[in-house]
């Protein structure tokens, strides 16, 4: 419908999920729903990058096991992360002997993974797939900003990269949460250059995709229990509501943001959470639980991503961003 939204005729479904999160993340509301709560964000590994890879392997295996399946019964793994050349996803996949598609959408990767996996299943090419992604505060800080050892002061517009991973087992049949559509985003750049202000950079991309979704589906925001963005944080969430309102679409009544709620935006978290694991852990723990339990019937999940690199930022480039949306129904 339109040139961005795909409606899935056979409606693949998420039949099982698995999540893991660090100590800081589990202090908030998500801690009640996460499957594996870490007491140490090193996860028994010698580096943060190895810990992130292990987290991703854990949720991929967990989603398969929670669906009552074995590894050889999965046809495809679709996964990505934030590190150079998506090494967490690639290194995790080498242990599974399952066909692998590595995807990169920065913090939008969970929605992108769901859309790609659902398209393969809906087309009849495969029966089952795992969509998963992860991030780690320390590995992201080391790559995108400053080593933790420097002790740099965080500005008030900054978000905190979430240490977490989430995976979903998507199947052509079974009882679960149906994926009924996907709206694929366009790259949007409003000229933001501040690498500490991800919310302001990504909000226009979220607005663009949400507007495209509602144009394609001929619906109103009231058709959804929640319109969930990935990790705009408190500031980005406010900007998004202003942008959509200016375009004649009021989402204020049912919009929530994963980055805003994961830490409950307490004083030392400033704007809340970010990172590919942010929306992944919220979706596959809290939101999946509420959908399966009947508290929510229909959710528009809009994960957002900032497509920057240390090279582009060092050269003074602005931050191009993207958002992908999937409709989830129970």
Structure report:
The structure is a single chain. The chain is an alpha/beta fold and 330 residues long. It folds into 2 domains: 164 residues, Stage V sporulation protein AD (Peroxisomal Thiolase, Chain A, domain 1), CATH 3.40.47; 153 residues, Peroxisomal Thiolase, Chain A, domain 1, CATH 3.40.47. It has 9 helices and 14 strands. The strands form 2 sheets. Strands 1, 2, 3, 4, 5, 6, 8, 9, 10, 11, 13 and 14 form a 12-stranded mixed beta sheet that branches. A two-stranded parallel sheet has the order 7-12. Strand 10, helix 6 and strand 11 form a beta-alpha-beta unit.
CATH fold category name of the largest domain: Peroxisomal Thiolase, Chain A, domain 1
CATH class of the largest domain: Alpha Beta
Mean pLDDT: 92
- End-to-end C-alpha gap: 22 Å
* Strand segment count: 14
Global geometry? globular
Structural class: alpha/beta
Looking at CATH, the homologous superfamily of the largest domain is Stage V sporulation protein AD
Count of discrete alpha- or pi-helical segments spanning 4 or more residues: 9
Reading the helices and strands in chain order gives EEEHEHEHEHEEEHEHEHEHEHE
Strand content: 15-25%
- What percentage of residues falls in helices of 4 or more residues? 25-40%
The CATH architecture assignment of the largest domain turns out to be: 3-Layer(aba) Sandwich
């Amino acid at each position: 419908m339109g040139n961005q939204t795909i409606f899935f005729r056979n409606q693949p479904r998420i039949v099982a999920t698995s999540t893991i999160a660090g100590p800081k993340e589990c202090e908030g509301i998500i801690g009640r729903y996460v499957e594996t709560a870490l007491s140490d964000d090193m996860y028994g590994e010698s580096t943060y990058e190895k810990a992130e890879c292990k987290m991703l392997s854990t949720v991929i295996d967990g989603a398969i096991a929670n669906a009552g399946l074995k590894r050889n019964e999965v046809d495809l793994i679709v996964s990505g992360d934030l590190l150079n050349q998506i090494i967490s996803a690639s290194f995790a996949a080498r242990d599974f002997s399952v066909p692998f598609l590595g995807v990169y959408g920065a913090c939008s990767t969970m929605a992108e993974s769901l859309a790609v996996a659902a398209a393969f299943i809906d087309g009849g090419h495969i029966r089952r797939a795992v969509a998963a992604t992860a991030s780690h505060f320390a590995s992201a800080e080391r790559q995108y900003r400053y080593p933790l050892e420097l002790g740099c002061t965080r500005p008030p517009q900054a978000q905190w990269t979430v240490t977490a991973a989430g995976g979903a087992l998507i199947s052509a049949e079974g009882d679960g949460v149906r994926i009924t559509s996907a709206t694929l985003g366009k790259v949007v750049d409003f000229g933001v250059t501040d690498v500490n202000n991800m919310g302001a950079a990504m909000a226009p991309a979220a607005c663009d995709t949400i507007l495209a979704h509602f144009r394609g589906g001929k619906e109103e925001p009231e058709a959804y229990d929640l319109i969930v963005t990935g990790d705009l944080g408190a500031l980005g969430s406010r900007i998004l509501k202003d942008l959509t309102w200016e375009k004649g679409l009021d989402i204020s009544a049912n919009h929530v943001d994963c980055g805003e709620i994961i830490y409950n935006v307490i004083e030392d978290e400033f704007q809340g959470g970010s990172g590919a694991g942010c929306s992944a852990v919220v979706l596959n723990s809290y939101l999946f639980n509420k959908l399966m339990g009947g508290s929510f019937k229909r959710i528009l999940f809009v994960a957002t991503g900032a497509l920057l690199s240390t090279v582009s930022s060092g050269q003074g480039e602005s931050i191009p961003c993207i958002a992908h949306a999937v409709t989830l129904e129970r």
